[in-house]
Amino acid sequence: MSEVAQNMGWAVAFSVLGGLIGIGLVLLASLFIPRLVDRMTPNIDEDKEIARGNVAVAQYFGRVVGASIIGISIVVAAAVLGGILAGLH
Question: How far is C-alpha 25 from the chain's CA centre?
């Protein structure tokens, strides 16, 4: 097997493994971050406020949680790209 084909195989293996780990981390973050925001705002019950129709709480909660998940996704994508580059080098 030539060195190029072997490097391509490692790159595919690293990207698949990194992708699976990345999906797991993003799913874990999507479960953990809303609980963290709840703990950071102990005097506000976000679920109750959203159910009452408080749009400001819903927008704040959604933006903070969404931005955190996007940030974690960017870090995971960089790690996957690093794995691909390591496999190709």
Answer: 6
Task: Give the position of tokens 């940030």.
Answer: 71
Q: Are 88 and 45 in contact (CB under 8 A)?
A: no
- How far, in Å, CA of 34 to CA of 37, rounded? 5
- Chain centre to alpha carbon of residue 60: 19
**Cα separations in angstroms, 51 against 6, 32, 35:** 55, 21, 17
Q: State which H helix or E strand residue 34 sits in.
A: helix 3-40
Round to whole Å and give the CA distance between 73 and 78. 9
Question: pLDDT tens track of the chain, all 89 residues?
Answer: 688 888 778 878 877 887 888 888 888 888 888 888 888 888 888 888 888 988 988 888 889 888 988 988 888 888 777 777 776 66
| pTM score, whole prediction | 0.65
